[in-house]
Amino acid sequence: MGLFTPPYLNHARNLLEGAVKTLHHHRDLLHPGQLHSLEEAISKLREGIARKDRPVLERISAEVEERFAAVIPVRPHAAWAEHVEAIVVAVALAVGFQAYFLKPFKIPTGSMQPTVFGMTGHPMEGPLPDPVTRAVNFVRLGWSYIDLKAPVEEQVLGLNERTKLNFFTFTEVVTSAGTQSIFAPRDVVARDFGVRPGRVYEAGETIVHGYVQAGDQVFVDRMTYQFRNPRRSEVFVFTTSGIRRIEMSLDPSQGSEFYIKRLAGVPGDTLRIDSPKLYLNGELATQKPFLRVMSCENGYRGYSNPSPNMGAQYLTTPEETFTVPNHSFFALGDNSFNSSDSRYWGIVPEQNVIGRGFFVYWPFSSRWGFIH
Q: How far is Cα 357 from Cα 32, in angstroms, rounded to an integer?
């Protein structure tokens, strides 16, 4: 329609388009008399538009609206129904997109640092930044500031982790004086801020003062592995379902979890670790991600031989080897000295693989971008 088309003519053309669509949608529900009446009204409307006689066209348009209203009553709450339908379609598209293309995933632990980060706590000296700086740091870097002091002398009795909306993780610090909540996982509160059962705080003493860095939010590519097999050195995500030694450590009510690791061995590969080096099939691993870990630079510390006393089963000595069986993979964390991986709980079944770690989309730190 042209920019200078008269409003009455625009209205008539829109009415004609809507009438044709409505008739097509309800055609199989109308008896012959109703069908003839509506088709006749549409024919008259077309003729009126062709003549562009305003009084006649306005009269025909009103007649068309009356006939359609009489035969096809307006649905009650039609606007609300349309909104609900739009929301349902949007949700279905989002679910389908996650199921087949890109799935958002939050890094739960530090086992892949410094490639990607889980949540970490950072104690601070001095006052916290002003509110504007805090807000900017949260949006840009994912830093949440905490300043928690003991109101009275109290002893820590326990740490209870709670997750709200299946996303936000809090730790309830239970003390002899009551309970206080911290926006951070239990291991971060204990490991990074030193809050542990039995510790006593004097009145006014700092319990937690600093910031918690959110775990990296990544997209998992679910398409690539539909067309090819996972490859050595790729970062991949998998479910823990059926991996017995992991399931034994989880709360059964929580179901399986998702892990992210480096794919170190494919079926038939023989692995050996002579710390800090990783060997594949009798030779030093040569893929760039493995070389980066073994460089012991920029935060990487190389690969380690874990202690059996800590529950490790495989590659516990420089001489020990492990051959990956069919339809399975061997997973290692880039933070080898602090990673629960296949050295502890064994192989990852082929059917557990979800996809390839693809892109860090938040926070906007130095790690933002494609995962290597």
A: 60
